[in-house]
Design goal:
Length: about 500
């Protein structure tokens, strides 16, 4: 959560210091967002698929058998292979940065803006390799149940970028943010390395071509392509937004600011919970207990839906407040784009867990095939809807395909396990949706009580947003308790323990 707050604050500060310039200025915030597109594409396409869902099930199998030496061999082999590949990718990015920017990323930007994007991309060229090393080490820690260092490492990355804003804004300008990101990637890696203390991790400069290693590599291409398709979609969206018709660098900045807002609850709820539960799901499969696997999965799925729905309600009604918080000025375009992404928040959060249902069973191909279909559909919708709705059309396309993707995967899951979505599950989902109806009404009236005014900013804006969120989430909790939902009981048990605990008093 701290990392997400800092990520939000980072985007707010970038907007505050660089988004106020004219759209054609080389210091426009859209330049900053465009510079990360290609490095992120290569990282997610080549390495990210290996760092958890395709890698951890094999580590879990070895750990369950008590083969720690095998865990270290498999980890070192993957670390060595991916580091070599990502180093080569970094060199290619450094050499061909200008070509990539001009032909792939943002052809609609001015020459000065393209130059700055290319320079920043060169500073970011080694970040994919650094993230890869961090990711492999963090995956090993997660298999052993150690999440602390993995969770806090992004804080150092965000702090480095935030610091670079103030260090470089009055001299080298926006290019300094890429230097901050490069330093942040190094700090993040160093912090994650601390998390290996006590585990007995042993790195060896060798690639052990064991049976498990070869099987794991066979799982990587589908997962990597799946991740790559997502990033391809990001490249296409950036390319569309960069056109002069939609606003160029300003449109890129607005869309990415809204995207940051929509990503926060997905990462905080969907990714965080799914990451925490994934080792347990892997263990259930390794133990040969599909019944417990199903039980754990459905329990967490209901919890994620219960937590996400009120967040979606708050996001929709408070979209203008959130947009102004992240932009610091009038942010009508960001508000419209973010409102169009609210449906995607729900289904992307669900997808974070649903995808792991397949990955725990070492099936990376099914999510890939579905992803290829929906992303191609997304690209088609993005082009067509952007002509009618501008940049908001990209967000509408995101919400449509997120819904379709989860629906298709759900149908496939049910065809493989007829007991998965039973009558009890749907009755509980109906009750959760019913509770959300009350939250929806509460959110609507909260906005009427604290309407967004043109002069609202700073603490006034924050207090109004807090009031709307407090009333909506409070209503969700209270009505959930009245409906007897299982998901709310741990919350009230914790509150009861906290409020009624006895303190030792010395006289």
């Amino acid at each position: 959560m701290v990392a997400q707050v800092l990520g939000f604050f980072r985007t707010k500060l970038v907007n505050a210091n660089f988004a106020g310039v004219p759209a054609h200025s080389p210091e426009n915030a859209g330049v900053y967002f465009a510079a990360f597109v290609v490095p992120d594409f290569f990282f997610f396409t080549i390495a990210a698929g290996a760092l958890g869902v395709a890698f951890m099930p094999y580590l879990s199998d070895r750990l369950y058998k008590g083969d720690r030496r095998g865990v270290w061999e498999l980890s070192s082999s993957l670390l060595n292979l991916l580091s070599i590949v990502m180093l080569g990718v970094g060199i290619l990015m450094f050499v061909f940065a200008d070509v990539l920017v001009d032909t792939v990323v943002a052809h609609g930007l001015t020459q000065e803006q393209q130059h700055n994007v290319a320079v920043m991309m060169r500073w970011l060229a080694l970040n994919p390799m650094l993230f890869t090393v961090s990711g492999v080490i963090a995956a090993v820690q997660q298999v052993f149940g150690r999440f602390f260092f993995y969770a806090l490492a992004p804080i150092f990355y965000n702090l480095a970028i935030i610091a670079s804003i103030y260090i470089f804004k009055d001299n080298i300008g926006i290019i300094g943010l890429a230097i901050g990101a490069a330093v942040g990637a190094i700090l993040q890696l160093l912090f994650i390395l601390l998390g290996s203390y006590g585990l007995g991790f042993r790195w060896r400069p060798k690639i052990h071509r064991t049976k498990d290693f070869r099987e794991m590599l066979a799982q990587l291409p589908p997962r990597s392509l799946d991740q790559g398709m997502d990033q391809l979609q990001n490249i296409v969206e950036t390319n569309i937004a960069s056109s002069k018709a939609l606003g160029g660098a300003t449109a890129i900045g607005n869309y990415n600011s809204a995207y940051v807002l929509h990503t926060a609850p997905i990462l905080l709820i969907g990714t965080a919970i799914s990451t925490a539960v994934f080792p347990r799901l892997n263990a259930r499969i390794s133990q040969g207990r599909p019944d417990l696997f199903r039980q754990d999965f459905l329990r967490i799925l209901r919890l994620i839906i219960w937590m996400t729905l009120p967040i979606v309600v708050v996001s929709f009604f408070a979209r203008g407040y959130l947009a102004r918080l992240i932009f610091s000025q009038e942010a009508g375009d960001i508000s419209i784009i973010f409102g169009s992404l609210c449906v995607a928040i729900l289904f992307r959060t669900i997808f974070a867990l649903v995808s792991r249902w397949f990955y725990a069973q070492k099936d990376t191909r099914t999510p890939l095939f579905v992803s290829v279909f929906v992303i191609l559909l997304n690209i088609l919708l993005a082009y067509s809807l952007s002509k009618s709705y501008g940049v908001a059309g990209l967000a509408i396309a995101q919400s449509i395909v997120a819904t379709i993707e989860v629906t298709i995967l759900g149908v496939i899951m049910l065809s493989r396990d007829r007991k998965l979505f039973d009558v009890y599950f749907w009755s509980e989902i109906f009750r959760i949706v019913s509770v959300t109806g009350f939250s929806l009404v509460a959110g609507f009236f909260a906005v009427q009580i604290w309407p967004l005014m043109s002069a609202d900013k700073g603490m006034t804006l924050l207090l109004k947003l807090s009031g709307i969120a407090g009333i909506t989430l409070g209503t969700h909790l209270v009505v959930s308790a009245m409906f007897g939902l299982d998901e709310v009981r741990p919350v009230f048990r914790w509150v009861k323990r906290f409020a009624l605990r006895q303190l030792h008093v010395e006289y």
